[in-house]
Amino acid sequence: MTSLRAHAAAGDLLTGFAVVPSLLRDDAAYTNVVREQANLIVAENAMKWAALRPSATRYDFDDADMLLNFAEQGRMKMRGHNLLWHRGIPQWFTAMATPANAKQLLQAHIETVVGRYAGRMHSWDVVNEAIQISDGRPDGLRSSPWLRLVGDDYIEVAFRSARRADPQALLTYNEYGIEAENAQDEAKRQAVLLLLRRMRARHVPIDAVGVQSHISAGTKYGDGLLRFIRGVRELDLQVFVTEMDVNDRSLAPAIAARDATVAQTYKDYLDLVLSEPAVTVIVLWGVSDRDTWLNHEDSRQDRVPERPLLFDDRFRPKQDFYAVRDAFDQRHPVHPSLNG
Ligand code: XIL
């Protein structure tokens, strides 16, 4: 009853982790933590194009099927991540896609993947990371392969296909670099809001915005993010924190002080975003510090392993675990009798 999922449920929140199929097969400690703590999971990689599409003609659903079955058996919801991204596009796609066939390839992928799990998914990240201000377009869109191949309407095409394939899943636009109080993130927030307004005006089906929340220890987040969340809510969309972790790159290596600052950063960030009723989902990007992606991409310069997640490398809860639970209680405290 002291689990994250119990504390989250008391405040009508969904919470959980990005998970890895091989660890759920082979690692009992990992699997137990996920079962105990999460009421929602997402595939860290197993539902991306690169994982599902070994070739133009073949789909490999083994890992994705396994994850959804695991979720259902554990009474967890599942998010799908993702249907369209500028990264992780299979090499065969790059070799064969042309402006003449790309829209059809995209639609077929979405129909097949979303259709396979229709009625069973909480939500799908339909489009991931489509804004890149530095690419210089007036609309802020990233000059991604999808834009070049499918055309300016590729986002709309993707969302409409997803809705047709599963009318129940909440369709999400997911973005990073929109959290901080600086001019760069503010410009990106504005571009995302403009994109959402354009989509609304054209009746493109969308239900939520994912704020990835790969944030930095010791950084103060604030009004810019709150205004963004309120702007999203005014468009009648929910807000999901989809990929939270707290990198400790700027901190000295000593562990105790690092863990305390990371925990405080989790608490402050979640207190901020959970003050907004539009925020209904909090997902951590991994379970334990042993498995964080941050030690592979964006690792510390001194090569000391980062400690960005709620469990240490032996699956013991860290200070940040308790900080996150406390932040969930702010929203709606767990009844004392459950809080044993
Ligand atoms: C990352 C995974 O964590 C890594 O294992 C993989 O090598 C690359 O992708 N934004 C996203 C996620 O939307 O899909 C990324 O996940 C992290 C950044």
Which oligomeric state applies?
Answer: single chain
Estimate percent helicity: 40-55%
Bound molecule kinds, no repeats? (3S,4R)-3-hydroxy-2-oxopiperidin-4-yl beta-D-xylopyranoside
Number of domains: 1
Could you tell me the number of beta strands? 9
Q: Which outline best applies?
A: globular
| CATH architecture annotation name | Alpha-Beta Barrel
Under CATH, the topology can be stated as: TIM Barrel
**Number of helical segments with 4 or more residues:** 13
Structural class: alpha/beta
- Radius of gyration, in Å, reads 19 Å
Mean pLDDT: 96
Unreliable residue stretches: none
CATH homologous superfamily label: Glycosidases
Strand order of the largest sheet: 1-2-3-4-5-6-8-9
Molecular structure report:
With 340 residues, the chain is α/β, with parallel strands linked by helices. It has a single domain (4-334), classed as TIM Barrel, CATH 3.20.20. Helix content is 42%, strand content 15%. It has helices at residues 4-10, 21-26, 28-37, 49-52, 62-73, 91-96, 102-116, 145-150, 154-165, 183-201, 223-234, 255-274, 319-331, and strands at 14-19, 40-43, 77-81, 123-128, 170-175, 208-211, 214-216, 238-247, 279-284. It has an 8-stranded parallel β-barrel with strand order 1-2-3-4-5-6-8-9, surrounded by 5 helices. Helix 1 (4-10) runs parallel beside helix 13 (319-331) and helix 12 (255-274) runs parallel beside helix 13 (319-331). The longest helix is centred in the C-terminal third of the chain and has 20 residues, at 255-274. The termini are close together. The mean pLDDT is 96. Bound molecules: (3S,4R)-3-hydroxy-2-oxopiperidin-4-yl beta-D-xylopyranoside.
